[in-house]
Every structure is written in structure tokens, then in C-alpha cells.
Amino acid sequence: MSKARPRPRRVTTSDYDADVGTSQMTTEEEDDFFITKRSDSGWKALNKLSQAKRGSVEIDSNDDSDLDDSPRRKKTKKSLFKTGKPKELPDWTREKVIDLLSSGDEDKSVINLDESEEVGATTPERNKERRIGRSPSLTPPIIDPAEKLHARRIVLEHMQATNHMRPRSPEPSFFNESDTDDAEELDPELIAIRTEARQDALQRGKSKEHEIGGIGKVECRVRLHPHPQDSQGKVIIYNFTLGRAESFESLFDEVADQSGIPRNNLIILHNNFKVYPTSTPSTLKIWAEAELDAYEEHVLKIIKEQEGRTQYTSYSSFSQTSNTSDTVPSSSQVDKGAESDSSQGKDNTFKITLRSGSRTITVTVRPTTKCSSIVSTFVKKSNLPPETAKKARIEVDGEKMDPDSEIGDADLEDGDQVDIVGLEH
């Protein structure tokens, strides 16, 4: 029976050099250890080879130790961060600094050489000076170019000229002419816009001045009426001068102060229409002179009751254009020979709507009002010639009424609508 073969031992390497050892063995030598079925002589040869290599490794390590008595350091990886003393700057950076800046009255052609300071040579005093002299870094405001500023001013001038505001001077004075003369020359398009805007403003100012009657003055004559039961009371007259575009605010204040009447109780009428403090003579179509009647509120009520009229018409209702309201006189007021009917008051009146084609007018009538008077009122309010009312008739539910008949015969109610037919246009 054959003797068991010993297992091959791992070849040890020297502790002094980690790079020298079995790592340098070729692949063929390593495979020899794992080949089976070797004879005893083969194992002996392999052992001799391994001992010979071990001896060569020890000799090499001894030679290295003779060169340097100190043990060998292990190689370390290079650090990613550089440490230690920084390298010195090259020689060209240590040349003298040339100061090309000059201030004050110094000659700009002189170049100053600073021999005392070098690049990289910083001192605490110099750092302190830098901190003190350093200004906060703030973002400067954006400065628009001159062309944009001029264009903006022209656009604003155009808007100012076309704005529908209260009347002002005809010539717009948004900015002086001297500013544009000294400024840079504008583009032809901007100059054309500016010229057109000024012409439009001038024409608009003239037309507005014509509409409101210019800047003339109006002489207002105010008559303050006393209480009707005051036998010693007299009419007091006040004279005022107002501009055509000026409100009646100051007139109300003056009359209230001079008469001693609280302003809230003061009522002023013009042609039996109420005048408000915010109104102006131009809005009331007053151009030169005006006769105004002033009353205390309770005094006016007493006067209206005595006259059989308990209300007065204000300018707010007078300003209606399409549908106007008016009181048609009764037959007693139209026909001079008829009996008067002054005892009838507000309770006996009602409103009807007159229609003829596209024209529509609302009137207030009494039951005794004749149809001819209603037709005449419609023709007058429609700005038609008086001759057109000769053949005109009132038609109610398809039936024509006689001109001499009263409107109360038609049994109409407040708000009913009747037609006017037979108008000669």
C-alpha cells in the first residue's frame, strides 16, 4: 500500500516587502501545486524550487535593509486636499505694481510705481482700510434713456388732451416748449403725434368754450319772498355775479348768510324750476342775466297751497329727452269764454302716453281737458308745424274722438296709451 502524499504548503513571503512574493509567480507555477498523481521525486523537486525562491527573497530584503537602516514606510494614498505650506508665487508676480489711475489735477500721462507693496503682501492695516473703504454693493436704479422719457411725455400729453374733463385753457401746457427745444430731436412719428394732439386739444377747447358760453359772467338777481301772512314783509333783492361754468354753491351760501335762513331750508327757483347748488348757469341755459326766486321751505309750501299747486317741477325731470312730461291746460284755460276750473287739484289729474309713429310723449291731463288741446301739446312737443294739427285726431281702441270732446269721456286710467293719427308730416 502506497504512502499518503503530503499536501503542499503555501509559500510564505517576506514581511518587509509586500510587493515581492507569490504574487509574482506565474500561472504555470501555481498550477503545479494542484496537479495530482505526482511521484515522490516530483514533490522533492518542487520543495527545492520553493526553498530556492524563498532564499532569493530574503537576500533581496537584506540588501534593501543595508541601504537604509530605518524600516520601510508603507505607501499611503494621496489626499484629495492639499495640506502644508503653499507654493510660492512665480517671480513675475513679484514685479512692481503699475498704478494707472490718477485723481485731481495730476497729469494723466504720469505712471506711478508703488515700490513698497507687492502682490500677495497683505497686512492687517491694509485689510482694515479695505473694509472701511468698501461701500455696500447696492443695485443702482434703472435709468430710462432719453428717447423713452420723451415718448412717455408725449403719450401723457395726448391722453391729457383727449381726456373729457372740466373746461380748461385751450392750449395744453403739459410741459414747456423750451424743454423740447433743448432736448434731443424726436422721431418724425412722435413729432406728428404731438402736433396732432395739440391741434385736437385746441379745437376741443374752442368747441367746449362755445358749448358752455365761454368764460363770460352772468348777473343773477335773487328775490327773497317773505311769509304770505307777514303784512310788513317785503321782497328783498340780492345781486350776484357768477361765471357761466361756476356752480350756485356760493350764491346759496351768500343768500343764507344775509337772510339768516338755514341753508338746508333755502329753496331757489328759476322759471318755477328748482335750482340745485351743484348746477351751473350754462347747464340751465343762462348766458347773461337770470331772475331767481328764493323761498324758505315752509313758506314755499304755504304759497303753493294757496295757489292750488302743492308741487313744483325740478330740473331732474326737465332733462328728459325722449319721454317728456308736461301738464296740458284744461279747456277753461284754452278757451277764454269757458268757465274756470281752478278748484280741481292734483287728485283730478292723471298721465297718459301719446304715440304717433316713433314719437312717444307722456302728458298730465284732467278729465275736462279737450282732445284738441292734447293734440296741440303733442305737436308742440314734437317740434312740428302748427298746421299739422288740423286733421290730427286722438284714437282710443280704434275709435277717433272729436276734437271738442273731453278726454274724460274715453274712461282712461293713469298710464294708458292713446294714438295720434292724421298728422301731416
Automatic annotation (TrEMBL):
Residues 404-417 have a biased composition (Acidic residues). Residues 388-403 have a biased composition (Basic and acidic residues). It holds the Pfam family Rad60-SLD. Residues 1-33, 50-88, 109-143, 313-349, 387-425 are annotated as: Disordered. Residues 313-327 have a biased composition (Low complexity). Residues 1-10 have a biased composition (Basic residues). Residues 357-421 form the Rad60/SUMO-like domain. InterPro entries: Rad60/SUMO-like_dom, Ubiquitin-like_domsf. Residues 11-26, 328-349 have a biased composition (Polar residues). This is Rad60/SUMO-like domain-containing protein. It comes from Pyrrhoderma noxium.
